[in-house]
């Protein structure tokens, strides 16, 4: 077998999110949409959906990291094909992996790759699972359509996982390459090499130094229709004004928009977006989103997730986000990863709750988030 990356395979399907946005898609300055009733989330049926949310994080970090020893090596090579504008990752094999099945001394391993900082579906590729071995051979090419200049802003993460009969994943180790200084013209860098697998990189290593800021305002309206005899639920108004100093991940190109979800509801009908604003790192949106169905008690359990994305062709690249809530780590009695608001985000939420019918404004720094899966 040649020790250079083999020829490109033309018929591989594209594994990407196709959540496109256009300039004309979001013209309403005030868009009212109700999530699946927040009131019902405190009931037993709501707790079922909440449990599924807390356990389904779509990111590099999903899976079991603590049970298995990290050992062994992985052999791979990378190359950039200018004529195709593609990064090729040739995953050859692994050896001496940890045994997920201690008694039979074997695992069912596969390799997953990400281009960081994007940790969503569009940045993820993976090999097939090779069963019952600690020395799997893959000989697979994982390909990314990406401009060479953008690669300089990326890191390549390769992680090895065991997948059991119930499709649960256990972490077996990882390797990470910083592509900012990678010499693509060096022939030695195109050869197959062995890399030792390492323990999980701390999440802080994935943080960009500066993801920019968002200027916004929140308002809680307890009784949108006063005077009605029956008790009504309240509304949370979210006014996304502008973003400042967004990072450029595609050279000088940027076409950004903001997406909003009220957690724990991750259904598509609860998601709202601004229009996309191009050719600036300081986009002005002036877009108001309204969510109803809030009882006073729901304000303690819910969290506003705002994420900023760069839209390019058929893909959306994550730039940064906010999670505005009380940051208690729990929602309706269940521990959840997404209730992780910073002190600044908590302060904004507290002021909104304590000052009903009043716009509370803030400028908050965007940060890396573990994005929850969007349910249908």
TrEMBL record:
Domain C2 as annotated: residue spans: 70-195, 210-339
Q: Name one GO biological process term.
A: exocytosis
**What Gene3D superfamilies does the record point to?**
C2 domain
Query: Localized where?
Result: Cell membrane
Record keyword Cell membrane present: yes
Keyword Cell membrane, does the record have it? Answer: yes
SMART domains cross-referenced by the UniProt entry: C2
- This chain belongs to which protein, by name? Synaptotagmin-like protein 2
